[in-house]
Structures are given as C-alpha cells and as structure tokens.
Amino acid sequence: MISLWETSRISFRALTANKMRSALTMxxxxxxxxxxxxxxxxxxxxxxxxxDRFSSMGSNMLTVRPGASQGPGGIRSGTVNTLTVDDARAxxxxxxxxxxxxxxxxxxxxxxxxxxxxxxxxxxxxPEYLFVQDWTVGSGIVFTEQDVRSATKVSVIGKTIVDNLFxxxxxxxxxxxxxxxxxxxxxxxxxxGTNPMGRDQDDIILVPVTTAQRRLFSSSRSGSVxxxxxxxxxxxxxxxxxDQVESLLRMRHRVRKGEEDDFSVRNMAQMxxxxxxxxxxxxxxxxxxxxxxxxxxxxxIMNIMLVSVTERTREIGIRMALGAKxxxxxxxxxxxxxxxxxxxxxxxxxxxxxxALSISRAFGWAVEVSLFSISLAFGFSAFVGIFFGYYPAWKxxxxxPIEALRYE
Amino acid sequence: MNGIVRxxxxxxxxxxxxxxxxxxxxxxFSVEAGEFLSIMGASGSGKSTMMNILGCLDTPTGGQxxxxxxxxxxxxxxxxxxxxxxxxxxxxxxxxxxxRMTALxxxxxPMLYNGVHPSMRDRKAMDALEMVGxxxxxxxxxxxxxxxQQQRVAIARALVNDAPIxxxxxxxxxxDSRTSKDIMDLFTDLNREYGRTIIQVTHEAEMASxxxxxxxxxxxxxxxxxxxxxx
Lengths: 408, 231
What we know:
Chain A is of the alpha+beta class and 408 residues long.
C-alpha cells in the first residue's frame, strides 16, 4: 500500500487536470455547506437574541391575564374581565414568593400638549409597576397610592413623549390632555429602551389605574384590569410564586376544584422557551433543506467519479500493471472524492461564515457562527465524500488489468 | 533446468457463455536469465494469453508457472500485483504513458508502488532515461514526444524497478520501420550490455528475429523453439 500523502498528491493532480469539472462538482457541496452554516448562524443568533432580550426583561416575571389559558403558548384574553386592582393588591400582600404585583389597564390614546400631539399607549397601574419593571424615575416623582385611591389626574411620562411633545421644555408640572382629559405630569421615567419585540418602551404614559378606568378608558365592568404583572422575589421562587398566585386567585374568584380557572398565569421562562422552540423548529427545517442540497451535491460527486473511473480505465490498467494493488486504486479514487467534498466543504464554510457576517452587517440580524456548526458541516461533507466516493472507487479497484489496458 | 522463467503444461481456457475456448494447450518452456526471447505467432495463436500469464496479469487454468523458482500460478490478484511490481517491467504496444505527466514522472511511477524511497526515485528515473538516451527529454510530456521517444520512455519505466524480466508486447506495433529498428536495437543493447532478460511478443518475423531465440505459437501450442543465428 502506498502512503496517504502520495495518494493525496495523485488525487490532487487528477482534480487539477480537470479544473472546471472539479469546481462544478464541488459547487453542490459548497452551496449545501454554505446553506447549513448560514442557517445555523442565523438560527442560533436569533435564539441568543431572544434569550438575551427576555433575560433583560427579567426572568422572574409572571403575567396574569383574565380568561383560561389555551394550552401552551396561546392565551385567550379580553373576553372576560375577571381581574381587579384588588386582586393585584392581594397578590402583592399575601403571596410570600411575590415581591411586587401591579395591575395594568389602559389603551392607546391621543395626547396633546400645546400645539403638539402624539399617539401613544397609556398604562393605568399602581406605583409598584416601576418596581415590577425595574424602571426608575428620571425626574419628578411617581404618583402615590393615594393618587390611585382617589383617581387623581396625574401621570409619569416616558422619554419619547417628552421628546415629541415638549421639545426642550421641562414637562414637570405641565398639563397634557389625554383623550381631552387634562392630566398633570408629575414625573419622567428614566430611559428604558426597546422590549423583546422591538417596541420602544419609552413611548409610554403611566397614570393611576383608577384614573385610566374611570376617567380615560371607562369600561362597563368597572374595576377590572387587563393584566396583572407579578415579580417573584427571585427566579428560583418563580414556580412557587406562580403556585401561590394561582391558588390565591382561585380562592378569591371562588373557582371550585375541577373547575377551569378564569385567569391564566404565564411565566417569562415559558415564553422564552416557546420563542426558542419556534426558532429551533425553523432552523431545523431550513437545515434539513440545506442538508438535502448537500445530499444532491454528494450524488453529483458520485456521478462525476463514475465518469472519471470510466474515462481513466486505461490509466487504472497501467497502474495495476505497474504493481498497484486493489487498495491502492480504491484509495486513490476515494481520496479524490474526499478531496472534492472536503475542498467544497471548506470553501462552503468560508463562504457561509462570510455570508452570515455580511447578513448580520446588512440587516442588523444577530448571527452566531458556532464551532459546532462548522465541525458538523465539515464532518458531513467528509461523510458525503466517503459515502458517495466509495462505490466508484470500489468499481475502479475491481477492474481486470488486462481488460483495462485494452480499453480505448 | 532451472531458468528464471519456467512454465510446465500451461493451459488456459476461456469460457464465453457455453463456449469454451482453449487458448493455451499444455505449453512448456523455460527461459534462462540474460536471454532475449521472441514469442511469435499469428493472432489467435495464444501468444497474447501467454504474455498475460508470463506478466502475472492473469493466471493459468492448469499447469505451473515458476518465476525465479517461485510458483506463481495460483496467486490472488493482489499477490500478483506484488510480483509485478518487483519482477516484471512492461512495455506495451500503445506505450501506455500517463498523459499530463512528464517523462520523468512516468518513469517514476513503478517506484510509487514498489516502495523505493522517494529521495531515490528522481535519480533512478534519470538513470533509466539516460540509459534509453532520453536524459534531455525528462521534463517533456508524452504528447510532446514522438512515438519512438514515447516508447523509449516506456522502456525506461520498465527498467527502473530493476525487474529481472522485461516483457514487451508488440513493442513496435505502433511505430514505423525505422523507429522500430531503433527500438529493437535498444532492446538488443539492453540485453547485451546490461544482461537484461527480455521477452517480446510479436507477430512480425522481422522483429522476432532480433531475439536470440524464437518460440513460435500456433493454436495454443508451441510450434517451433529455435535459436537464431545473428552475428
């Protein structure tokens, strides 16, 4: 048996003798590997971004909404109004694992100051909301529990509102009109940024929940809120908090054993998991498609190798006459196929990484090129080379030297 | 008799479907080291079959073939390959050089398979090329060489592994008569000056007569085995 190094040199020469053909054969592998690398990079980048953004939102958050849950992920909401401000207060006071709980009731509204107007979302809540969200007050103060009890017309506004309504003016103490209702600005929120869905969180106005209920968005069933935001004392206590909130609300709403809850509690970890699972599924799907193109590339290699074996029958005969053994011939063609696929694989990896990076630059998507995906692509192309190269190589090695020498 | 080549009652039968063709019928002869033997015969006489068996490309159906005293008539394909790379240098009618390789690389080819150390190969290949008078054409590719030159490269390739036997299969079949004479003179030289054992197969009596001994085949049997009188 001759050395692998020399076999590789022979194979390399055979490939360079037919550059165009070799390049076209590799193209299938190049495209396949490139697609795999890019799909993985974009998929895991998206996954990373999702978990980063959600964890910045806090991994110890629970959301309580009215209406029963519809299994994993889906929530039917807005149809029933069973949650109240008192529920929020009870959760905050009675559940040991809960740090803060705040009701949310609001909607979007036109806001006017002087000759400026701006459409934004108005959130009615309690002072605890800032603790739940980990938000701070930039200037001024937050409305108080007293304001909530008496439905005072005061508000704390986000930075985007300040920018759009007041220009350079100090908003504290000024009166804005929300849905034509005059409301005094008592505070400005510190800058927050965007939420996981990419929404500008500074584009917000906080008012006492009662003000929202009675004066801004009066509803037929007064006292109900659309959401209760809950923050557990720690992420370890999240499940405990969820259990406590559920049993407290069942008791308060007099839900009997076996009856369906008239509310649903979602925790952030589940939402992250759901979102991640969705991207994962998508990535797997796209990778499978990419894998198919890799397979097609492999069949291309086999095709060309079969042609090559037939074309070089005489060469095989000569080599056999000069003393090449079965294994020498088989190895020569196998290494040739392997070289095609590995060269294609390496090129595909480079192009895939370059492609992923330029996508991230062009569209601002998060991409993450993992060592895992590179070794997977490399390993898979090696496998394709061996798998699809073996049959032609085996065929070549079984040629009869006398007939091969006579082949025209 | 203890020749370098000894065949005893060699038979070879090809089965083409139901038809059995007897290509060789109990052929026996032996060749001493340093001989220049011509095997002559018309097509279908069995000389090519004999050549394939002598070259260890094929095995006989019956009988024994001893090469340097070893019985090689029942060996497997890979074992025959081992014999070929050490014991036999081939020269073919169609030259059978690999295209896109220089003359030197073609001559080095047998050493790729027979384990000569890479550092030795260039020198040995150069020596062989010089022996056939083509030292100055080492870096030419086959398509840049004339037919006669290509055949000389092929002969150099047959010489390079120091095989005890050089087997030439119609070595002048593709060459004009002047070049043919040159090639036969080269064989004669190699035989006389370097004592190489040469067995050539040909259907031309003129080429056969360069050998010191001519075995004539007909219908798979040895018809004549005679020494030629050449000065």
